[in-house]
Amino acid sequence: PTLAPTDAQCLCHPGMFSSDAGSSACSLCPVGRYADTAGLTECKICNAGSITNTGTGTGATTCTACPAGMYSTASNVAACSACAAGKDVGTTGSSAVTDCIDCVAGKYVVAAGSDEAGDCIHGAAGTYVTATGSDQASDCIDCGEGKYADVTGSE
C-alpha cells in the first residue's frame, strides 16, 4: 500500500516559502527577507537595523539586530557598519548613521564601533577639547602659557 504524504512532508524548509497551495516547488526567500520556520507562505521582512544570516544572499533563516556600536541602513548588506571613531551608539538595532552620537566636548574615543558613551574618555589634564565627536588624543589642545586645566576632560 502507498501512504499519502503528511503535511510535514509538504512544508518548505526554513529559508524558503511557497505561496501556492499544492505547489511542488519552494522558492528561496529574497535578499533582505527570511523564513525562520518551515511552511511559510511568504518570507518575513528583516528591517533596517538588522541583517539576515545570508547578508547579500537569498534563503535567509534568521534576522538579527545590529549590536550596540553598529548600525545598518538596510537588511540586505553583508554586515552591520561600525559607528565612526568619536561616536557611539548604546542601543541594538540602530538603522541610521545618525544614531551614532558624538562624544561630548572634552572627551574622545579612538576606536570605531563604540557601544556606550562611557567609551568616550577624558582628555588629559592640561588639555582641552572644544569640539564634539573627537576621535583621537591629539584633538586635545594644550593649555596656553599662563593657563592650566587641572581636571581631565576640560572643554
Short description:
By secondary structure, the chain is mainly beta.
Give your account of this protein's structure.
This protein has 155 residues and is mainly beta. It is 0% helix and 19% strand. It contains no helices and 14 strands. The strands form 7 sheets. It has a two-stranded antiparallel sheet. The protein has a two-stranded antiparallel sheet with strand order 3-4. It has a two-stranded antiparallel ribbon with strand order 5-6. The termini are far apart.
Labels describing this entry:
155 residues, mainly beta, two-stranded antiparallel sheet, two-stranded antiparallel ribbon, 14 strands, disordered N terminus, disordered C terminus
Query: Major β-sheet, in short?
Result: 2 strands, antiparallel
- Number of discrete helical segments: 0
Mean pLDDT: 78
Whole-angstrom Rg: 25 Å
Number of strands: 14
Q: For the largest sheet, list the strands in their spatial order.
A: 1-2
**Which blocks of ≥5 consecutive residues have pLDDT under 50?**
1-6, 151-155
Overall structural class, as computed from helix and strand content, comes to mainly beta
Provide the succession of SSEs: EEEEEEEEEEEEEE
What general form does the structure show?
rod-shaped
Helix content: under 10%
**First-last Cα distance:** 85 Å
Proportion of residues in β-strands:
15-25%
